Amino acid sequence: MRDLRWLLCGVACALSACTTILPTSEEGQAHSTVLLQQQAAQASARLRAGGMATPMLYAGFALNDQSTAFQGDVLRLSEITAQLSPNSPQLLFSNAQGAGKPALPFATIPDFVRGAEVLQTLASEAKAATRRDPLLVVLFSSHGGEKMLNLSSDDANGTLSAHTIAKVLEPLEAYPTLLIISACHSGSHVPDLQRDNRIILTAAAADRVSFGCQSNSRQTWFVEALLKSFDPELSLKQWFDRTVESVRTWEKNLGYKESLPQMVVGADMSAYATTPMRRLFDGGKQISRQ
After folding, report:
1. Rounded distance, CA 227 to CA 217, Å?
2. Which secondary-structure segment (H or E) carries 150?
3. Taking CA 220 as the corner, what is the angle to CA 215 and CA 225, rounded to the nearest 5 degrees?
4. How far is CA 36 from CA 39, 115, 219, in A?
5. What is the rounded average pLDDT of the residues 193-211?
6. C-beta separation of 259 from 208 below 8 A
7. S-S: 205 plus which of 15, 31, 113, 187, CB 3.0-4.6 Å?
């Protein structure tokens, strides 16, 4: 009987450890808020520590829980921003964390709203500390459709629209921004999101699908190509062109219809698009947004 009790106790503990906290549940949102507060405190501490000539702030959102690729995109792109600006604050969100307590804030719409508010605070702190506009890098990775990105399977909202993204990011429009969307039909978001001080990279044209989002994928093809093509001596435009060539080669070799990734450069962002990336963050003169 004693052995049986120990066995039952072990099973109960195992089941408890594997309990999934749903992103939209009350428990999930409470836990997510605490994790975001922790990330915000760490990010603010990095800014106070100094060491950034021109600061970069990164926020990545893995919106859907049906593929490991989306969280992989968020985590791997954070490595690139860290290479360019080693002390750069990062905010990482994911709805694809599996069983047990999540290690990152979730990426529901309320989480996105809170994350944008934190990003705005950090951008203000960064500008005060360095007297320079920080470059904001914001990534969304998910399944997608026309002007929409899929949220987690338990989310009654279902999707995040291009209109909602535009409204939530509106308070951040004073800062130069690199916005990356890795999803099918992600080019359809451009009309709602393009701004003079924004560069937008999308994994696909408005009427095309993108690839690499199977349930067990490490990254989407677009973000994987960004990683493989990255060289800090390149400009953003050169980096994007190399990425497109890699994606096109993979699609051609497998007989897939081209996804046609898009790059849209705002009127005030040509210098950001054409200057070698290392120079943007090497302590040189503040870049002019022209």
Report:
1. 15
2. strand 148-150
3. 155
4. 5, 7, 23
5. 97
6. yes
7. 187
Q: Which tokens hold the place of 279?
A: 């120079």
Sign of CA dihedral 195, 236, 80, 153: positive
- Burial label, 145 (beta-carbon count in 10 A; 0-12, 13-18, 19+): middle
pLDDT tens, residue by residue, 242-260 = 999 999 999 999 999 999 9
**CATH of 32-280 given 3.40.50.1460, 2.60.40.10, 3.40.1380.10, 2.40.160.210:** 3.40.50.1460
Summarize the confidence of residues 136-148 as an average pLDDT. 97
Give per-residue pLDDT as tens, 96-113.
Answer: 887 778 999 999 999 999
Pairing of strands 90-94, 135-141: unpaired
* Average confidence (pLDDT) over 215-230: 95
Look at 46 and 95; give whichever has higher pLDDT. 95
Question: How many Cβ atoms are within 10 Å of 112's Cβ, its own excluded?
Answer: 23
Amino acid at 63: L
Is pTM beyond 0.85? Reply is: yes
Name residue, tokens 């046609």: 260
Rounded CA-CA distance 196/265 in Å is 8
The two three-digit tokens of residue 97, written as one number:
């964390």
pLDDT at 123 over 50: yes
Query: Distance between CA atoms of 282 and 53, rounded to whole angstroms?
Result: 7
Length of the chain: 290
Percent of the chain with pLDDT over 90: 73
CA angle 115, 118, 123 (to 5 degrees): 120
Q: Are 157 and 230 in contact (CB under 8 A)?
A: no
